[in-house]
């Protein structure tokens, strides 16, 4: 039975390379950064219409702004719709959510790109452009899987709920909106760029901003001041120690190939405004990883205590404690039982298609999966084409073959998870 | 003889408090930051006219732009005149240059000022405002000294060359301009804010910009990148070691009360642009102090070698050497023989007026004195009212009494240095 479906779907994918490539190119050429998602969502809707799905397009609003899981700087989502397309099953099957985000991070410094960041140029089996890997490629895999089943006349028992959400890159208000609108399922797959590894665990993360104080003085008499730059070095060292301590506690074998399972990354530093003055303030911005089974609050408390402990290392911090501000984005961690049936199905379909065992790891970053699990009670697996290394960077690309392989694996997974009547 | 002059001048100063205060207030209320010096220079010229000086007002131009000592980002000094006023002696006396700069550094963050930064408000014996201490107060001391001699009918043998120059805060193009225009003298006094200490040595300094490279990665997999922020910590530590080594060589007793005679100050740091990305570049800007008897080139070479040596500490720097750029301002160091006659005269006049010994130290910062000495061959002493601690900072002020005391000491010094026929 499986063998038949596999060869059918494999052939369909081979015959529909152009469909997938054209769809991805259309999506990539729409610069769907935050607040600019509208046109790309219309591309999605146009495609969903061809697949005979029940389409739901709406702007997130209302109670969401006061929801405890809400995290966004936006005051309105006007013209930034969420899109859901439902393929109803014929009954008595398990349902599944297939979730992808339409928002992309900005292209950054254009001069670092070889081509236009939204070119969708194809070269050497790769398509280039912001969002190819994170994660319009994964979204196309989902749509190809659904389309293959439709065109091959394979009717599922359970419902397939395809979601194209906004705001994943900025705190998950889009996926939160789908939950508040009532979308639930027995499980979910999110094809974020895992490089085709299977992630039953998802790390959470939070952004923070530290304010390190000094005292100004003329650089020629710098001993009369206190350098916020020098004090920052003490702060950074303590954060490195905290990172070590937090990671030493991680014993999950899924992290055994990960050098630092839950990193503390310091991404931005800025301070001082004159070369020959002593800097009186340095701002450091970073992200702290949250273990899949850890409460966000616990990670916050550990960072707070680490900064508090600076007072025992350097008396200066008693006078001027380091300021701590949780700002910007936040991703809730998530986890699915490794024995969950969907895990077994996805692994076996991977083996069928790839003729090798899948790698099973824990994700080094957050996704909307944490929200689906923690708030919606929906078990989530993250599995998709594309790779983290090139997400968010210039010359982002995706290996097109991986996108079709993932589509094939997901189509086969849907057949087994949702069930079919032959 | 001295006793007579002293009481005459002391009385004149007492009777002319209002003259000095009004003049300083007028100067402070003109925001003479770089490129905006014109109006403040007109205040100077108006005052010089009352003193019957030969006035020379000109805009620096021509050969100066290619002069080896030229240091400025400006391409033109149009509407930024230098002003010199010469009081010719009646002959056979030694000449002197009295040099003050009219430019002030910008006021910075206005919210940190209690009053308008250009208020010239008087409270508790202090006048507040940008430029009061650095160094319009010192300039007023010079003008009061000249005015006292004139109004008391004291005719000097040697010439007094008063200079109100532009660009001291940005590399000395104004004073360089006076030298190129031919102004020379047997000695010079610059009343920068020494808190009435006598500085026969002047530290030089230069600004530098370091570019520390990293390699970007997602913060969740930060071990795949190289953090330019972490590498900066290595660089900063080596610069601290260089500062220690350079200062360990300073044996001049004039520095014995100075914790760090020639500091390396790191004043600005900025790097990275996203909290959850690994920073791929950090820029550090600072100043390196140059010892009074050191060649600028020697200090530059030591810094270059220090950065080169990073390659032996961390292999990363072989791949990505730290970039070094000498930019912005530069002050040439200077020194006068401690046995120079002007040193003796100034000390004895200080003792007469203050009834205590002056403190003799080496300056912790650069002035235009280095140019006068190195290029003009003119021995220079730096001695003035005001204090470094508040120069360049919010709520800059000057103790008005100190301004009048310095005026008195300089007037008496002129009488003895330039000579009088009774």
Automatic annotation (TrEMBL), chains A, B:
Gene3D superfamilies: 3.30.70.360, Zn peptidases. Its cofactor is Zn(2+); Co(2+). InterPro entries: ArgE/DapE, Bact_exopeptidase_dim_dom, Peptidase_M20, Peptidase_M20_dimer, Peptidase_M20A. The lineage of its organism: Bacteria, Bacillati, Bacillota, Bacilli, Bacillales. This is Peptidase. Belongs to the peptidase M20A family. Coiled coil: none annotated. The keyword Zinc applies. The keyword Kinase does not apply. Keywords: Cobalt, Hydrolase, Metal-binding, Zinc. It holds the Pfam family Peptidase_M20. PANTHER family: ACETYLORNITHINE DEACETYLASE, PEPTIDASE M20 DIMERISATION DOMAIN-CONTAINING PROTEIN.
């Amino acid at each position: 039975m499986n063998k038949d479906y596999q060869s059918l779907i494999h052939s369909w994918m081979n015959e529909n390379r152009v469909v997938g490539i054209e769809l991805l190119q259309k999506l990539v050429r729409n610069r769907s950064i935050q607040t600019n998602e509208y046109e790309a969502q219309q591309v999605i809707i146009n495609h969903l219409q061809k697949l005979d799905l029940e389409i739901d397009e709406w702007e997130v609003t209302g109670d969401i702004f006061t929801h405890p899981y809400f995290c966004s700087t936006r005051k309105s989502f006007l013209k930034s719709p969420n899109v859901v397309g439902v393929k109803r099953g014929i009954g008595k099957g398990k349902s599944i959510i297939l979730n992808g985000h339409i928002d992309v991070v900005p292209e950054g410094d254009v001069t670092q790109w070889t081509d236009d960041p939204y070119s969708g140029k194809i070269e050497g089996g790769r398509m280039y452009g912001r969002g190819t890997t994170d994660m319009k490629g994964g979204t196309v895999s989902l749509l190809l899987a659904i389309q293959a089943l439709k065109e091959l006349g394979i009717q599922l028992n359970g419902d397939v709920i395809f979601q194209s959400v906004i705001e994943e890159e900025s705190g998950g208000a889009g996926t939160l909106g789908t939950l508040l609108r009532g979308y639930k399922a027995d499980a979910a797959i999110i094809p974020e760029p895992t490089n085709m590894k299977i992630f039953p665990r998802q790390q959470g993360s939070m952004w923070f901003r530290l304010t390190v104080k000094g005292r100004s003085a003329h650089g020629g008499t710098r001993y009369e001041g206190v350098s916020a730059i020098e004090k920052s070095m003490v702060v950074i060292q303590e954060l490195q120690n905290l990172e070590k301590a937090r990671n030493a506690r991680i014993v999950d074998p899924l992290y055994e190939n990960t050098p630092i399972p839950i990193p503390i990354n310091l991404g931005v530093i800025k301070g001082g405004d004159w070369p020959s003055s002593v800097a009186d303030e340095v701002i450091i911005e970073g992200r702290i990883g949250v273990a899949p089974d850890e409460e966000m609050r616990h990670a916050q408390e550990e960072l707070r205590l680490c900064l508090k402990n600076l007072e025992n290392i350097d008396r200066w911090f008693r006078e001027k404690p380091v300021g701590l501000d949780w700002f910007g984005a936040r991703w809730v961690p998530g986890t699915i039982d490794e024995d969950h049936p969907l895990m077994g199905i996805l692994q076996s379909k991977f083996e069928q298609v790839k003729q090798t065992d899948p790698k099973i790891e824990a994700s080094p970053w957050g996704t909307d999966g944490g929200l689906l699990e923690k708030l919606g009670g929906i078990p989530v697996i993250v599995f998709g084409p594309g790779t983290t290394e090139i997400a968010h960077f210039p010359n982002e690309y995706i290996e097109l073959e991986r996108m079709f392989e993932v589509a094939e694996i997901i189509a086969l997974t849907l057949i087994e998870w949702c069930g079919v009547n032959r």
